[in-house]
């Protein structure tokens, strides 16, 4: 939901440069503070073309049914509406108190579900389903139930407890009774936006949320049988300091969530209009932001959380940590995922799908999304079909992001190319990163291992393999690494 960035240029000597137990190294982070993608896809979404034809999507969808063992399916529903505006928000959302807008939207979403359902074999199991936004709980439980029922006529929803059905919750509009209703509908995972519990910070970003009610929801979710709760926090918000954010983190940990996502606020008011309501003078200075991140990483390490990668932390027995251990971790538009190799069918305005060899994105404007569906057309606006080079580089980047290691010989062998020749340029760049202690290289097997210090700079390491970043000015479109 959020972009991340930190501006270190001009940062003064930092008060605390120790390497804490997770390998967090402030000096290296300072040195490698480059703008770069978060690699929820490769090629990244900003490279999708509006020349992408929906017939290419249809071709890929049909081809995905023909594999010897067709992949499982992951469904994503984008619900764009929000009751109120959080000033830091960079998401594609529609702020309204008019609930009837959801009624119209759901009618169109159903049309899209039907059109998509016609493309996929009916025996392909939906093992993952996720409601994101915006605010999915803008919908009532009855509306969500109706949507799920409609979906089950067009897709085969897995019934047993191994399915992952998750929903993003806005604790300001969800009480324990509502949460119990969601559990009854079959959701077994939730993600809660918290951001910060400090009342001053909450006022400055226009998101007032009671810590007690939020923590009660997390505890209640566990008692109801939700197997995993994720909490989103943001550092770098106005009026935050190391000590206030530490209090928020410690407070959140009282409820022992299974996962935490710690995002870094990117202040880009020219790009994201609501951010103009945030006073620049209130933003923490770069050295304060790093102190916040440093102490957060330290607290989470001491509390026993495992650093999965990028912005994500999980308890060692959580599905994400286990998937990382078992080799089934995957990276997609929702961050990390425990099912590898699913076709991801994303429904709703602006949603991004990954099906067989292509990525595609729906229209970002509601009227365009509705117009296509009025003509019984898939509302696809842009996308890309991956080349063999994209697939090879994506395989490398995914291995690094999910497992901190990649055997280039193995990846290249499946692509029919020679690793030494194909990644000759990249190997030279990696040698510099090795000099700085970010990676360890095995020359004989062309193996790259990310060191503990390199783990917080995964984006930088992955960028080495990103062919598209070599174009002039390419990095200007991304946020900073940390
Ligand atoms: S609730 Fe989420 S999507 Fe809506 S404005 Fe706030 S941060 Fe943005």
Structure characterization notes:
The protein has two domains: about 25-35 and about 390-475, Orthogonal Bundle (Arc Repressor Mutant, subunit A); about 45-345, tm_1862 like domain (pyruvate-formate lyase- activating enzyme). Mean pLDDT is about 90; it is low at about 1-20. The protein has about 475 residues and is of the alpha/beta class. About 35% of the residues lie in helices and about 20% in strands. Strand 6 (about 165-170), helix 5 (about 175-185) and strand 7 form a beta-alpha-beta unit. Strands 1, 4, 5, 6, 7, 8, 9, 10, 11 and 14 form a ten-stranded mixed beta sheet that branches. Strands 15-16-17 form a three-stranded antiparallel beta sheet. Helix 5 packs parallel to helix 7, helix 8 (about 240-255) packs parallel to helix 9 (about 285-300) and helix 12 (about 390-405) runs antiparallel to helix 13 (about 410-415). It is built from 16 helices and 20 strands. The radius of gyration is 22 Å and the shape is globular. The chain binds iron/sulfur cluster.
Secondary structure layout plus pairing:
Layout lengths: L25 H6 L22 H12 L7 E7 L1 E2 L11 E2 L4 H18 L7 E9 L7 H14 L1 E2 L6 E6 L6 H9 L4 E7 L3 H7 L5 H14 L3 E8 L6 H12 L5 E6 L21 H17 L3 E4 L2 E3 L4 H8 L3 E3 L2 E3 L5 E5 L4 E4 L2 E5 L3 H9 L5 E6 L2 H16 L1 E3 H8 L3 H4 L1 H12 L3 E4 L4 E4 L7 H6 L19
Parallel strand pairs: 1-4, 1-14, 2-3, 4-5, 4-6, 6-7, 7-8, 8-9
Antiparallel strand pairs: 9-11, 10-11, 12-13, 15-16, 16-17, 18-20, 19-20
Helix pairs in contact: 3-4, 5-7, 8-9, 12-13
């Amino acid at each position: 939901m959020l972009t991340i960035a930190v501006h270190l240029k001009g940062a003064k000597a930092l008060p605390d440069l120790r390497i804490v137990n997770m390998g967090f190294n402030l000096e290296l982070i300072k040195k490698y503070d480059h703008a770069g993608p978060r690699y929820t896809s490769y090629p990244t979404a900003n490279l999708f073309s509006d020349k992408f034809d929906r017939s290419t999507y249809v071709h890929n969808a049909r081809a995905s049914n023909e594999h010897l063992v067709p992949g499982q399916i992951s469904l994503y529903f984008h619900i764009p509406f929000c009751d109120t505006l959080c000033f830091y928000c960079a998401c594609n959302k529609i702020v309204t108190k008019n609930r009837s807008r959801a009624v119209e939207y759901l009618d169109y979403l159903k049309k899209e579900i039907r059109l998509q359902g016609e493309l996929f074999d009916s025996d392909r199991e939906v093992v993952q389903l996720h409601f994101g936004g915006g605010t999915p709980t803008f919908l009532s439980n009855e509306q969500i139930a109706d949507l799920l029922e409609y979906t089950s006529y067009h897709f085969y929803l897995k019934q047993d407890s191994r399915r992952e059905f998750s929903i993003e919750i806005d604790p300001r509009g969800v009480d324990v009774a509502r949460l119990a209703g969601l559990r009854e509908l079959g959701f077994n995972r939730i993600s809660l936006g918290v951001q910060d519990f400090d009342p001053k910070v909450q006022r400055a970003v226009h998101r007032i949320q009671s810590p007690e009610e939020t923590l009660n929801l997390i505890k209640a979710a566990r008692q109801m049988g939700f197997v995993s709760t994720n909490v989103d926090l943001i550092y770098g918000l106005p009026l935050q300091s190391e000590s206030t954010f530490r209090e928020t983190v410690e407070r959140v940990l009282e409820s022992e969530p299974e996962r935490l996502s710690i995002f870094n606020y990117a202040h880009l008011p020219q790009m994201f209009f609501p951010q103009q309501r945030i006073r620049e003078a209130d933003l923490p200075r770069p050295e304060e932001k790093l102190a916040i991140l440093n102490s957060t990483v330290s607290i989470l390490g001491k509390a026993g959380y495992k650093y999965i990668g990028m912005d994500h932390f999980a308890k060692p027995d959580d599905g994400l940590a286990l998937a990382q251990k078992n080799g089934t971790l995957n990276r997609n538009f929702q961050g990390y995922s425990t099912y590898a190799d699913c076709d991801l069918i994303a429904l709703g305005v602006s949603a991004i799908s990954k099906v067989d060899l292509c990525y595609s994105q729906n229209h970002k404007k509601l009227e365009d999304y509705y117009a296509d569906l009025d003509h019984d057309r898939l509302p696809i606006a842009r996308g890309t079909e991956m080349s063999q080079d994209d697939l090879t580089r994506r395989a490398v980047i995914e291995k690094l992001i999910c497992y901190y290691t990649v055997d280039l010989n193995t990846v290249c062998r499946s692509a029919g190319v020679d690793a030494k020749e194909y990644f000759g340029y990249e190997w030279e760049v990696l040698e510099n990163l090795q000099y700085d202690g970010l990676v360890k290289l095995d020359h004989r097997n062309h193996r790259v291992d990310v060191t503990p210090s390199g783990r917080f700079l995964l984006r930088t390491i992955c960028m080495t393999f990103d062919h598209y970043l070599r174009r002039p000015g390419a990095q200007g479109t991304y946020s900073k690494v940390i």
